[in-house]
Amino acid sequence: MPANQKYLTHSGWHRFAKLLSGILGGYIIAALFHMALALWLPGHKNVLITSAYGIFIIWCVFMLLPFLSKNGWKVMFIYMAIIFLLSLVVYYGNIHHPIPTLR
To answer: Where, by residue number, does the polypeptide cross the bilayer (predicted)?
Structure first.
């Protein structure tokens, strides 16, 4: 049984925006989220060890969310805003709570 045409995205650019924000943006959001957790929480080793599974789960969620929206550009803008905010959190976390390196 084919899908109902009224629920499908007709514009190729909206489809491209949804795919790009879902695949690439979802992964960047998941990775930045775990980097921020590692910088701001006291047990950064535990966060980094469990981030392999956590990144995959968060990435799957953020990969599916754009397809619930009708407008792909709005989702891409929201994902870019989240990426910008998480980048600021990681930047200031790296300044105030740097992870010590082994030398």
So the answer is: 20-41, 47-68, 75-93
